[in-house]
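Input sequence (103 aa), recorded before submission:
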Amino acid sequence: MIVFSMFVQAAQGLTFGVVPFVSRRSSRVVSGMTGAGANVGAVITQVIFFRGSQFKTENGITYMGIMIIACSFGIASIYFPQWGGMIYGPKANSTEEEYYLKE
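Predicted structure, token format:
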């Protein structure tokens, strides 16, 4: 459970770590939407895996972990031209100024 908790915390850090890069001008709105989405996701997960007798608690925790891992892989696809992403490096001749002036 401790190792699982560490990975959950890392996934949360990744999710909120992207917020400042999305839009500086509306970072508060993006942060709020991210937090609200996390709460909605938690409620949906609890309803799917722990309501009723469809899954045993042990199986629900296992499936919840698999779902968290699968959803976290989406973070790897985020790419910012001037900084790069987890898979590819930054785009040549791309600047921060150019990126933020497009807003």
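Checked by second reader. Strands lie at 79-80, 84-85.
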